Amino acid sequence: MTDLPTHGVIWLRSAFAEPSERVAAAEAAGRVTVLTETDLTRDALFAHRGLITGIQLDQDRALCWAEMLSAWLSAGGRWLFNGHMVRPILPEASPFVPMDRPGRADFAQTRIADHPILTGIDPSKLEANRGVAGFYGRGHNPMPKGAIAITGLGPSHVPVDWHWPVGRGAVFSHAGNDLWGAGLEHGLGPVLTERCIAWAGGDLPCA
Amino acid sequence: MRLIATSCGTYYHIETLEGDRAPRVWDAIVPPEDLATTLEPGDTLFVPCRSPAQRLIAQAETIRAHLDQGGTVVAMGESRSDLWLPAIAFTPRPTNWWWWREDGADLGVEVTVPHHPLMAGLDRGAVTWHLHGHFDPPEGATVLIRDADGLALAYVDACTTAGRMVVTSLDPCYHHGSHFMPATTRFLAGFLPALRAIAKGEQGWTRAPLARSATD
User: Which of B132, B51, B128, B108 is nearest to B85 (CA)?
Assistant: First the structure.
């Protein structure tokens, strides 16, 4: 099996906007490589430990990466996925399931299991921005077999965040807007950006 | 006479264009990179909101050629249409996504020409969710939707090119595709069938709806 580097994260740039200053700083420090979707080759992926994708990921394009991603995860890759998975990029996943007419109580968060990306962060601080809830997530990407629910929404603990150990690697799925957009009024955006990079890059424990 | 949509493969484009919660009105759904081999004169092109702008900028010549041949382009919000369509003067503004929590909340968004075929069935509630900015439309354009200050949020420009541009700063596809903001689903339920009727020649741009036959 191919050995991956122990560090280095691809920040996949799907959006038009430039990555944030914190991402740019991580790139300048050599921790992050910002790549456009068309530049994500097999060689590029296997030269990095981590991959971070945002909500503007082209899932039609990403569907063509399914075999490559599976092999990379088996070899130890860590993928942080943001958004609703609506194409079977992971063969083990099924399409996003929205909550049925959620109300405010359905957006209350419960930390079902600790995770290095979210450890020490009060889940209630991620529930709303300026008092408006629902940005964090409004449903879930169904968990593959063996995945662990991390954050649950509402009384039924809809698994908006989960961790899936796969091969020597892992997937962290956040079924909402980009994770680093949560908790802005509490200054958590930069914290979450750094946690995402550190986790994907192997600087934090896998789970 | 087809209605073509671009999809950038984002989850909200896929849900909006392919899902069963919005009218499926498309003759074809293609990535922006396929426009040069897809568009035919007479087609109406719909570019959904929050399309990564670099993918449309790369197709600007193709889109302009389509307009010069008399085609129609509909550019939804938050896709930087000012960078890939001609004569777009756009002023962005910070998103006020908490507006409805303020006392006496009313964005004051209005359909300025309720008789316009594209606006059929759209009331204030169906065009009100967030504001992202306004346009200074070129002379001769028809403003469809305005904000409380009278600034244009959507307009039709049939003057700048030989074709027609429908431009808006509203972003219904993102919200609808995110299962967020029911107003955006209502907007699409009214706007998309109206757009298809026009694209297919069943309805004019300015006339009242054509009379239907008894067999329709």
Answer: B51
Least CB–CB distance from B14: residue in A86, A98, A99: A86
Q: Which residues of chain A does B7 touch, with a Cβ-Cβ cutoff of 8 Å?
A: 60
Q: For the beta carbon of residue B41, count every other beta carbon within 10 angstroms.
A: 12
Nearest to B119 by CA among B140, B154, B147, B144: B144
pLDDT digits (tens, 9 = 90+) for A143-190: 999 999 999 999 999 999 999 999 999 999 999 999 999 998 899 999
Give the torsion through C-alpha atoms of B128, B131, B136, B142, to 10 deg: -10
Within the 46-65 window of chain B, which residues sit less than 8 Å (CB to CB) from chain A?
50, 52-54
Which residue is associated with the tokens 């429908």? Answer: B166
Distance CA B144, CA B187 (A): 13
Q: How far apart are CA B132 and CA B95, in angstroms?
A: 5
Report the complex ipTM.
0.97
Q: Is B201 left (phi over 0), alpha (psi -120 to 50) or beta?
A: left
What pTM value is reported for the model? 0.95
Q: Is A19 an interface residue toward B (CB < 8 Å)?
A: no
Report residue B71 as tokens.
């085609």
Interchain CB contact of B101 with A (< 8 Å) = yes
* A83 touches B: beta carbon within 8 Å: yes
B15 touches chain A (CB under 8 A): yes
Q: Cβ separation of B179 and A61 shorter than 8 Å? A: no
DSSP characters for A57-125? --HHHHHTTHHHHHHHHHTT-EEEEES---S-SSTT----EE-SS--GGGG-EEE-S--TTTTT--GGG
Question: What is the distance of C-alpha A127 from the center of its chain?
Answer: 17
Q: DSSP letter at A160?
A: E
Report the gap between the CA of A191 and the closest CA in chain B (Å).
Answer: 23
Please report, as a single letter, which amino acid is at residue B20. D
C-alpha angle with apex A160: B24 to A39, nearest 5 degrees?
70
Query: pLDDT tens for residues B1-54?
Result: 999 999 999 999 999 999 999 999 999 999 999 999 999 999 999 999 999 999
Instruction: Kindly state whether A64 is in contact with chain B, defined as any CB-CB distance less than 8 angstroms.
Output: no
Q: Is the Cβ pair B180, A85 closer than 8 Å?
A: no
Distance between CA atoms of residues B143 and B151, nearest Å: 9
pLDDT tens profile A62-89? 999 999 999 999 999 999 999 999 999 9
